[in-house]
Amino acid sequence: MTGTLRWHKASYSDAGGGQCLEVAPTPTTIHIRDSKNPEGPRLTVSPGAWAGFLRTPAFPPASASSW
Fold it and tell me: Is position 43 within any domain?
């Protein structure tokens, strides 16, 4: 299936080799992998789960003491 996926590197990626993700969206699944290890393990999530992840703030609010 890898040959049919179109992988997109995160816009925050740079040539310095920082930690970066690549995603390959399909109508029913979002495929996620480490850009430095494209043949390594992959994570797949539903489009709804991915959308929820993207809406999550990078840092929890100060009132979220359980974090």
Answer: yes
Q: Answer whether 30's CB lies under 8 Å from 44's CB.
A: yes
CA 40 to chain centre: 14
What distance in Å separates the CA atoms of residue 1 and residue 36, rounded to the nearest whole number?
19
Which of 1-10, 13-22, 36-45, 54-63 is predicted least confidently? 13-22
Asked, for residue 6, whether it belongs to a domain, the answer is no
**Domain carrying residue 51:** 19-56
Taking only the tens place, the pLDDT of each residue in 26-61 is 999 999 999 889 899 999 999 999 999 888 887 766
Count: domains in the chain: 1
According to the per-residue pLDDT averaged within each range, which of 19-23, 45-49, 63-67 is highest?
45-49
Would you say residue 14 lies in a domain?
A: no
